[in-house]
Specification:
α3 crosses α4. By secondary structure, the protein is an alpha/beta fold. The protein contains 17 helices and 19 strands. The longest helix has 16 residues. InterPro entries: AAA+_ATPase (IPR003593), ABC_carbohydrate_import_ATPase (IPR050107), ABC_transporter-like_ATP-bd (IPR003439), ABC_transporter-like_CS (IPR017871), P-loop_NTPase (IPR027417).
Length: about 475
Amino acid sequence: MTAISVHGLSKSFGGAMALDGVSFTVPSGEVVALAGENGAGKSTVKNIIGGTLRPDSGRVDLGDAGNVATVHQETSLFPDLTVAENIMIGRLGSSRAGTVRPAALCRKVSPLLRRVGAGFGPEALVRELSAGQRQLVEIAKALAHEPGCIVFDEPTASLNLDERELIMRIVEQLRDDGVAVLYITHYLEEIFRLSGRIVVLRDGRLVADRPTDEFDRSTLEALMVGRELAQGYPELAEPGQETALSVHGLGDGARIDGVCFEVAEGEIFGLAGLMGSGRTEVARAIFGLAGRTGRIEVGGRPLRRGDVRASIAAGIAFVTEDRRNEGLFLERPIRESLSIVGLDSLTRRFGRLDHAAERRLTQDLATAVGLTARSGLEAGGGSLSGGNQQKVVLAKWLGGRPRLIILDEPTRGIDVGAKAEIYRLLAEFARAGTAVLLISSEMEEVLGLSHRVGVMHDGRLAGVLDRPQATQEAVIRLATGGVR
């Protein structure tokens, strides 16, 4: 039985073709993966199926689906309301006096929470939940509508390994219960585990629609990006002899304490560990975004505490894990996100901006990272795909030729082609003598890109592994409190 049939969908935005005659089906009791690079048209398909966007031509037939629910990458919950209130927000039961009945809400929501394996109750406040728990609330919220089809859009992008596993088990259970699932993700291992069929989009067109067992990883990647990707990770050059970053007894008064390590010029130093181990706190304390104890030296010179301007002046660049809220201006021109770090060098007397110099700088930066902005640099940052947004966040720092680049989850939520480009750039930075502090939840990424790997556990650095000793088993042992 077919839950959803997509017939000849086409959609343009400002003259740019986002979808061009896309057709496929999603049967009941099956997971269909929708694959493609950022900008391939996946979100446009999702929004048309979900009813938030109208196609220029074509149609969507719901068939046996009855209705469709969507679980988005970014949760849309009210933090100060309870779990029950969030799940039932569109149809809160009330008495004749117009008051909400919490007990009735909890009775309705409890079975949904049990179905998704939630370890919290309906009365919990959403603001007290972890990212993974909030995603469970989103799934329960979708199930409350008893949909025949659920669209999952990057549901595990910001989750740790245990939370990702739980979400995948829920998807498998939904499939076994007869629910149709359209699954969008950049994690290829999730596609191969969960899906029965893969629909591949490239540049708004359907390029493949066939059973999953007819694909292997390299074939899927080639279909997504239109070319064969270089296998593995780029070759690393030998680091220099000089120390770029020295961290001595680093703490933040809360989550991390006594962290010590050094990064040489031209070295990629990976920082691994489980979610909550303190990796991000180390990065933010070094850059000056949090109070700190201990001592930090950049190029042999002490770095002033809690001072972002001093960090930038010392040659530190910071690529945040939250690019949409902290990394670029979504509503402002891409040009402004690219030039923000170098504004001082672009300012004339009396504070006037040299617009010609800004245009030259931003075009050079966009070229350096291979930025694709089809609508030009005057378009808003939010118009870019995730991979191109990440390139902007990285490019804005390059004008100052940083001595150290700190990257926190640099490839989260971006496609395989953009990942390969980011990997190439990191290797080039290191080859040019820039030190790189790389934080990533993807084990293969840390091991494949790093000269050495530091492993965090419970707010402390549990150990540092040289490249030959840095295996998955060794990292996991340290990350879980074991010894080398």
